[in-house]
Amino acid sequence: ATTGDGLVAALQILAELVWAGAPASELLHRFEPLPQLLKNVRFAGGKPLEAEAVKAVIAEAEAELKGKGRLVIRPSGTEPVIRVMAEGDDPA
Predict the structure, then answer these.
(1) What is the spatial distance between Cα 66 and Cα 69, in angstroms, rounded to a whole number?
(2) If we measure between CA atoms, which residue out of 71, 74, 76, 73 comes closest to residue 86?
(3) In what order do the strands lie in the sheet with 69-75?
(4) Alpha carbon distance 4, 6 (integer Å)
(5) Dihedral over alpha carbons 22, 24, 30, 36 (to 10 degrees)
(6) Helical residues (DSSP H) of the chain, grouped into ranges
(7) What are phi and psi of 73, to 5 degrees?
(8) Tens digit of pLDDT for each residue in 3-14?
(9) Using CA atoms, how far apart are residues 23 and 30, in angstroms rounded to an integer?
(10) Burial class (CB in 10 A: 0-12, 13-18, 19+), 31
(11) What is the DSSP letter of 23?
């Protein structure tokens, strides 16, 4: 990514480690990753994320999560695919 998100995340973790005054091995074991699903959805031209039908399906999926997960849906910068990441408490 050109936005430097990884650097910002790393700096935030380092700041937390300094603030807590504890080693990473002690603090980072508390992290519990959530079940995650990654899919690439191919499309044939156009801008599918702007289509009303696609927006409706995305809104429905977000509503099903009921605030207990997240969706990250974005177009690839290099391929004709939409990248979909779903994450939540329930792997289903």
Answers:
(1) 8
(2) 71
(3) 36-42, 81-88, 69-75
(4) 5
(5) 160
(6) 5-20, 24-27, 52-65
(7) -125, 120
(8) 677 888 889 988
(9) 12
(10) exposed
(11) -
